[in-house]
Amino acid sequence: MGSHTDSRDPLPTPATPAGREGLDAILARPGRAVIALDFDGTLAPIVADPEQARAHPGAVPALAALAPKVASVAVVTGRPAGVAVRHGGFAGVPGLEHLVVLGHYGAERWDAVSGTVNAPAPHPGVAAVRAELPGFLDEIGAWRGTWIEEKGRAVAVHTRRAADPQAAFEALREPLAGLAGRHGLIVEPGRMVLELRPPGMDKGVALLEYVRETGAEAVLYAGDDLGDLPAFAAVDKLRSDGVPGLLVCSGSVEVAELADRADLVVDGPPGVVKLLTSLAAHLG
After folding, report:
1. Distance of CA 262 to the CA centre of its chain
2. CA angle 66, 51, 104 (to 5 degrees)
3. b/e string for 63-95 if b means 16 or more Cβ within 10 A?
4. Which of 118, 125, 230, 245 has the fewest CB atoms nearer than 10 Å to its CB?
5. CA distance linking residue 33 with residue 46, whole number of Å
6. Backbone φ, ψ for residue 243 (5° rounding)
């Protein structure tokens, strides 16, 4: 296959045959394609305080240009769906009428048509861990600068503000895994964050169920973190079932494992926006 180019808006060529097949399938049958994207680090730059995270300024215009040309656009995130909608600025945008946000790894779902969030009851272990966690961190002498993020159906411990973020991250992994296990939860590591959440919730499960629900015949997934590896695995599974897919890494030196697995590496959220914009242009 030759390089996908256009004099106005070039599309990059994936580095792998499977990725090139995935991009070709999206270009050939856009109305049967699902475009799925992580939020933090993919559509929104990583910031020290997750509450300050906002979608890249070009993200919503790019999605609004692309969404009407494909079967569906889905944002797949560990955040509560409503938070991702607010921080992304996704509500009430012309062109995004069929956007879906799969929040809390698919446990919550917001769709632009109804503007509402559907969700099951939360796991009781999350409330128990939430209550126990401050004292637990004090007891084990957690690094100064470590802090807790309330995520509704999960709770996260961030180390990015610690004096030595990586050392704090490594020191907390085992103790937090023990705490999570006592309450029927698991620990999901990310970029200087350890999230305690119920098992069976991951981006791979959410993506696989959504692609099968829509009957999509091609899929693109873009992510930036360890939590996106299950979604990458889901695309691999779909490929083995005959559904072409394109894996995009929103480039980060912090998560080399994801970049190594990707068909295409772009330069963070600005690179994702550029890719989405180019894809929309190529779909006419």
Report:
1. 14
2. 65
3. bbbbbebbbbbbbbbbbbbbbbbebbebeebeb
4. 118
5. 28
6. -105, 110
